[in-house]
Amino acid sequence: MRDKKLDNPDMVNTDKESLFDKHEDMQTVDPIPVEELNEEVKDERDKRGTKQSSGSEKKNR
């Protein structure tokens, strides 16, 4: 294995090899932030309602 710390999709340095490290074609793929994706889906369902939560507010807590 390599000497440097591997980049984990969760942005935490680790010694374990991730799927992104194992496959060369996956090294340029960005993981999808699931929490933001879930917020977008909720917003799409309630198009007429006002937005009650903000993804940027949750990130900055």
**C-alpha Rg (nearest Å):** 17 Å
Q: For the residues shown, what is the average pLDDT?
A: 66
Beta-strand percent range: 5-15%
- Distance between the amino and carboxyl termini: 37 Å
Structural class: mainly alpha
Tell me roughly what share of residues is in helical segments. Answer: 25-40%
Number of strands: 2
What is the topological layout?
Elements: E1 6-7, E2 13-14, H1 19-22, H2 34-45, H3 55-59
Antiparallel strand pairs: 1-2
Quick structural gist:
The chain is mainly alpha-helical and 61 residues long.
Give a verbal description of the structure.
With 61 residues, the protein is mainly α. It has a domain at 6-47. 34% of the residues lie in helices and 7% in strands. The chain is built from three helices and two strands; from the N terminus they run E-E-H-H-H. Strands 1-2 form a two-stranded antiparallel ribbon. Strand 1 and strand 2 (13-14) form a beta hairpin. The radius of gyration is 17 Å and the shape is elongated.
Task: Give short descriptive properties of this protein.
61 residues; mainly alpha; two-stranded antiparallel ribbon; 3 helices; 2 strands; 34% helix; elongated
